[in-house]
What we know:
The structure holds 2 protein chains of 2 kinds. Chain A is an all-alpha fold. In chain A, 75% of the residues lie in helices and 0% in strands. Chain A is built from 12 helices and no strands. Chain B is mostly helical. The radius of gyration of chain B is 19 Å and the shape is globular. At the A-B interface, helix 1, helix 4 and helix 5 of A face helix 1, helix 2, helix 3, helix 4 and helix 5 of B.
Amino acid sequence: MKCTDIDRMLSEGMSISEVRRRAAPHLAECDRxxxxxxxxxxxxxxxxxxxxxxxxxxxxxxxxxxxxxxxxSTLRLVLLVLASLVGICLLWLLVMGAxxxxxxxxxRRFALFLYAVVLASLSAYTLSRLLRPAxxxxxxxxxxxxxxxxxxxxxxxxxxxxxxxxxxxxxxxLCLLFGLITSFLDCAIIWRFVHRGYMRNGFWIGSxxxxxxxxxxxxxxxxxxxxxxRFHTSLWHGLVVAIxxxxxxxxxxxxxxxx
Amino acid sequence: MASPFxxxxxxxxxxxxxxxxxxxxxxxxAEAAEELVALVNPILARFLYATSWPGVNLDDMLxxxxxxxxxxxxxxxxxxxxxxxLIAIARHTRVDTYRKWQRTGxxxxxxxxxxxxxxxxxxxxxxxxxxxxxxxxxVSALPDAQREVVVMLKLTGMSIxxxxxxxxxxVGAVKQRAYRAYQxxxxxxxxxxxxxRSRRSGSQNSRGLDGxxxxxxxxxxx
Lengths: 259, 222
């Protein structure tokens, strides 16, 4: 046994007594390892904390102590986000019908459905991890946001043909407004769950909420918008996601700074 | 004073009591909240002290940390180990406080040497105190990521998995950081001993080891 084996045992989380027991022959020969173990076995110093600090903390907590509902689990949050997306789309369906959806071919419907479900699930999963202080991030939020911004314009440019038409800007602005209203509605619903979480990074959390809202806006637009044209969809519908992400990030960043 | 977590029984007791207290705290129980503060505050204070920079206002940082814990208590999931959750919030508090300290001109203040903390407990005197001070100096010389891993493993008795949760990294990364930290500490200890021997042979009046290990009475250990 070598000195490095002692370090390896310690780094594996083995207790000092267990290391001593296993490495007894080496410890009898080595003049440094017993010293290292002795040091690691000594307690860290007790810091000086003001006498009033702990009572103050307890008092502050007790003044504002009320029962609280735990944040939904990751799976529940993903399902809630999907339910919110479906619910808002159904609402618009009831109010405005589905002229846009009726124009879509089966293939396009499937591609858009897949896009919405996959991206919403991944965004909600990442959001759920961000809201817990001790959760590992399987997917960095920047990847999800990048995918949110790029995926729809890319998909739209693949799915829809180029059809020159008048009123490109006027119709586009109308779609943008509709998408942003839908996005805002969805963000408000998601925020009801999100605000119970830990503001680990306000910007990322806000951006992801915005991305989910934008996604709902885009899906709702597919139901109501009859302009199934490449430039219209990729620009104006895509802008719904971009503006929602930017707005959400800004709001999240401000909220985190204020708190 | 010995670490409250130095014995296996104390660790077991903590791992049983903490989840129940967290659940009571979430349900609005004042008794649970008070007991939780009494039980966890020393752990947080030691963690923040051992991983922070000299001159930090520990009292303020502790209060800020508890404020965050209180505001985000909904994000604790019943059934999960509470210590990684609590320590993760303490980590974020430390990082944010450091950034704020830098923004508000902290870099302009002159850094004093790392001081041994005052201790009013007579049981903490003597060799144990010297070893504790030396350990703190060795730990404080480590890079930030290695230091917090060593402190978590040593201070709270958290498992490697729990440390990985608290730091948001993988088990492999935690083991690697810990391994490098122990090697680095061993090397510093060795350099300190050699320096001390050479100085001692050169001058009977010389005191101390070298650099960061030489300022406190920890040299008397040798």
